[in-house]
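Ticket #399: bound-state structure for 4'-deoxy-4'-aminopyridoxal-5'-phosphate.
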Amino acid sequence: MKTEHPARDRPLVYLDYQAAKPVDPRVVEAMLPYFTERFANPASLHTMGDEAAEAMESARRTIAAFINARPEEIIFTSGATESNNLALVGYALRNRRKGNHIVISEMEHISIHNLAKYLEKNGFEVSRIPLDLYGRVDPAKVRARIRDDTILVSVGMASNEIGTLQPIREIGELLQGKGIAFHTDAVAAEGLLPLDVERDHLDLMSLSSNDIYGPRGLGVLYVRKGIPLTPLMIGGGQENGLRSGSENVAAIVGMSRAAEIMREEREQEVARLRTLRDRLIEGVLATVPKSFLNGHPSARLANNAHFRFTGIEGESLVLLLRDEGIQAATGSACSSKTLEPSHTLIACGLLHEEAHGSLELTLGRFTRPEDIEAALEAVPRAVRRLRQLSPLYKEEVPS
Ligand code: PMP
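RESOLUTION: The complex was predicted; output attached.
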């Protein structure tokens, strides 16, 4: 995707789709009437209220079909962070009598890690499953952590940083019949993998609207029928009493349109992205000495290229690329305010200095081959420049 930048003679190249995606213009079109003519509150008893409620329920059916769930199992939230809060804290509080042990993986999004710490401060015990060097969770390690007092297991569907896919179905299968709820944060994967809560034996699943090119500020928590949660947002009792507050009908209609488009176009789009991503990975590894791919070589998201470069500091690289018009990231935007290296890379066994030398490039619906070519020119040039400036690197690799 190229965005004109007034201060530049060149368009900007956007390769940070994991941090934010543009809303698809077809989604915007579907949403527009709900800001103006069809603005009514779906809880209102009048005709316009009924029409808003019908639009919302139709959207709920479409989103339910997108993940093979029932409409009454879809709870609208303000985003994936809130969905994760409702899943972990809502489930933990409601099921405390059954036990106080929760299992997560070391790969999780920062919101899950911080929720786990919050629960620990509030009397729960959390076990964290280690990762292999590709960032994978071994289902046998999940099995080994299960105890009589385990009430919840939460493993993300894929890493939002290094793109590694997790064996969700296998974990779902091994938890079957144990009375332990299984949650996944599917945000990183939802625009790239087919989602099916039955196939994967999921009880709770967090989704975000923007990750399928819908508007921001809307998320979903899938809650399997019969899974009890304590609501965290108290008020008028909307969303089955689980999430009070007037629903954002325009955004809900937008997410539903986004899900329809994703269903129709995903397969073809994933094949296209994979080709572009492979060209990017192969090109960078071939042209930059001492460059490595983070994450799994094949079990990875079709839009994710995550590199590390010996002797390079990721933030300097992102800033040099910025000067070249490339919008890139060192890792998760959600963690960019901390100076800590990526917890995921450290859990994969990287040293701090290795983890600091990372670059995440993520592709999406509006990425074109010329964007990849631009990155393939800019990245080797930027790495070379940084290494020339670094006395440490010169000592290590005489040029
Ligand atoms: N989970 C994952 C895997 C994410 O990548 C993100 C950020 N996009 C979130 C949760 C949080 O989403 P939000 O900022 O929309 O609440």
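RESOLUTION NOTES: Residues 2-23+266-396 form a domain with the Aspartate Aminotransferase, domain 1 fold (CATH 3.90.1150.10).
TICKET STATUS: resolved
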